[in-house]
Structure formats: C-alpha cells, structure tokens
Amino acid sequence: MTKLAVVVFPGTNCEHDVVMALGNAGIEATLVSHRETHLGDVDGVVLPGGFAHGDYLRPGAIARFSPAMDAVAALAREGAPVVGICNGFQVLTEAGLLPGALRRNEGLRFLCQPVRCRVVTTRTVLTAGCRAGELLELPINHNEGNFTCDAETLRRLAAEDQIVLTYLDNPNGSDGDIAAICNKRGNVVGIMPHPERASDVLLGSLDGLKLLGSLAKNDRVASSS
After folding, report:
1. Is 196 a catalytic residue?
2. Region 180-206: what's the mean pLDDT?
3. CA 123 to chain centre
4. Which of 34, 53, 142, 194 is catalytic?
5. pLDDT on residue 204
6. Per the residue annotation, which of 86, 130, 149, 182 is the catalytic one?
7. In CATH, which of 2.30.170.40, 3.40.50.150, 3.40.1010.10, 3.40.50.880 is domain 3-217?
8. With a threshold of 0.90, does the pTM exceed it?
9. In the chain, where the domains are located
C-alpha cells in the first residue's frame, strides 16, 4: 500500500481531511510535524491547506524554512510524489519547488465555492488516473489563489506540459486560468482547489478521488535527464 506523509504546520487546518480522503483512495497517510527533519518511511508527501504560521509575511513564506521542508525537497529530487494543496501550493512556490507565486484574488475577496476544472495533462502523479480534457468539480477556499508568473514562465509552463488543471470560469484572476501546475518531471504538483473536499458522496462530488487515487498509481518518477 502506498504510504504518504502529511506535513502539519502551525495553522494547518485540512490535515485530517486529507488523511481521511487518502484513506478513501486506498492510501495510508500519517501526520508529521513541520519540526521533523525526517518524514519516515514514506512513498511521498502532501502539504495540506490552511494558514501555515498564520500567513504572516505572506502565505508559505515562513513555512518554507521549517525543518521538514529539507526532507520534502529531498523527496522531490528523488522523484517521489510531492503534492501541495492550497496553502501547500503556496509553500511549494515559496520553497522554489514550483515556479511562480500566489497572490491576492482578483477583486480582493476570499473565495469559497465549487469550481469546474479541466485536466490539461495526465503525466503527473496527481492526474495519472484522469483523462486529458476531463472536467472535474472541486471546491476552492482561498484568499491568495491567484497564480502569477512572468510571460516567459507562463510560455514555458505551457510548452513543457506543466499546466495540470485550468479553471473553466476563472474565479481568482490566475494567469492562464491556472488551477494547478507541476515541475518538469511531473512528480511535484501544486493545486489550489481542494480534492480532499470532493472525496465522498456526502460532500457532493467524488472527483477529488480521481486525483488523490492517482497517487497510488505512481512509483518514483525517473529523472528526465
């Protein structure tokens, strides 16, 4: 069985939801403190949503210096699945594991609503169980979900197949309608919508399980070099 670590920062509030949703997808998950320098014998890691360190300075800016992030970066280099959800996405960009940045939503409003997303690529650890072009309904819950990057980075993300999900009706102003991106190898993914909140019929959608379940289908991604 695939086993993942779920890193808990001060202010994280989605860790138990992620553990439960991963369990629904047949994946064993264990909570690990951000203070730990070793994540245990795991196949990958998820950085869950919330407000790490209260989002002081800016979201993810303090969390990137947590001891656990060295272990997260090591797993990423080894090709292991590394997924950041919402605040976790912000942490991954601040840590330099993904390009770009997340800023205040267009209109400066907190957003909490279901959105429809299109799967752009299936070569990532989070979308291997999906179809290209497939539509997923997932909830968002964020204030700084507006993905931004310079024009060259946006061009490169598209050219190198690093755009993972796009919004059908962009709710936050993200460049390129981006809802999720990955690194070049496809093993590090940042996603702004919450798949764990779409993982049970009682939550209104099972589309999140298609994403989280993909994590059980992936071995460590071989280097592209």
Report:
1. yes
2. 93
3. 15
4. 194
5. 78
6. 86
7. 3.40.50.880
8. yes
9. 3-217
